[in-house]
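Module 6 notes. Inverse folding takes a fixed backbone as the condition and produces residue identities as the prediction. Think of it as a translation problem where the source language is geometry and the target language is the twenty amino acids. Below is one complete input and output pair. Work through it position by position during the lab.
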């Protein structure tokens, strides 16, 4: 396993990258060095030809306990502002990665941990996971944009205003979590999801991710145009023929 600084570990095997938040003694609290390491890791993975899918997970029983507020003691407003910009840059690097990124979430997910998870394409969570967005109660502002886009404005306000803990079951019900599994199945489920994604033609997956993300920012008519442009690029590559041949072979086998 290689590292992007000790706070974030990266391992690549068989086209699957594993990115690990690695501050378990600090409950994986997000500090400045972790922000920088996370950004660096995903910028490198974005251009890595041998990577087909990324799994983002954490060491220890806590996925991420939010921002590490201890590092702000004695700092001035200018430092805190730069620190927040570093976290935004880290989230954006995760979000903009051209490879599918799947969060594997266990235990508490708090504040910045939720931002990291929501920056991924989707979340697979242990049924023991919990979610909390305490930013206003910590005297700061955060999670106001991604959260409302994932679960809706009213639900986002309720969580932010009250600081209550949301269960994994509720998170799954409202769309924050895409798949819910038993705690002892999280790693296996992650491996299964990664293998399924890695088995698909990489250009088709990359174009699908791009088309979904760009389409979410516009209306249906423009979204269809985005999809048509993606289809044309895929056809120009020629790799689609392999998919058709594979499907035809599978269909023939099923009929025999």
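Target side of the pair, the amino acids:
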């Amino acid at each position: 396993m290689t590292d992007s600084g000790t706070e974030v570990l990266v391992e690549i095997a068989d086209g699957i990258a594993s990115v690990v938040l690695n501050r378990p003694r600090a409950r994986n609290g997000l500090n400045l060095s972790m922000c920088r390491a996370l950004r660096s890791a995903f910028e490198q993975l974005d251009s890595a030809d041998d990577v087909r899918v990324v799994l983002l997970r954490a060491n220890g029983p806590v996925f991420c306990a939010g921002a590490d507020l201890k590092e702000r003691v004695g700092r001035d407003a200018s430092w805190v502002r730069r620190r927040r910009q570093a976290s935004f840059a880290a989230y954006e690097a995760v979000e903009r990665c051209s490879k599918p990124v799947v969060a594997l979430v266990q235990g508490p997910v708090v504040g910045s941990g939720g931002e990291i998870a929501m920056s991924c394409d989707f979340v697979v969570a242990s049924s023991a996971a919990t979610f909390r967005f305490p930013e206003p109660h910590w005297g700061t502002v955060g999670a106001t944009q991604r959260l409302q886009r994932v679960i809706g404005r009213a639900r986002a306000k309720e969580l932010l205003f009250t600081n209550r803990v949301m269960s994994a079951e509720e998170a799954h019900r409202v769309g924050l979590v895409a798949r819910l599994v038993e705690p002892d199945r999280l790693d296996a489920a992650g491996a299964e999801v990664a293998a399924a994604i890695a088995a698909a033609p990489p250009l088709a997956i990359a174009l699908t991710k791009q088309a979904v993300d760009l389409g979410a920012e516009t209306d249906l008519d423009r979204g269809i145009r985005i999809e048509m442009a993606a289809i044309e690029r895929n056809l120009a590559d020629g790799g689609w023929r392999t998919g058709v041949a594979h499907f035809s072979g599978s269909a023939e086998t099923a009929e025999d």
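Reference fact for the lab report: The chain is about 50% helix and 15% strand.
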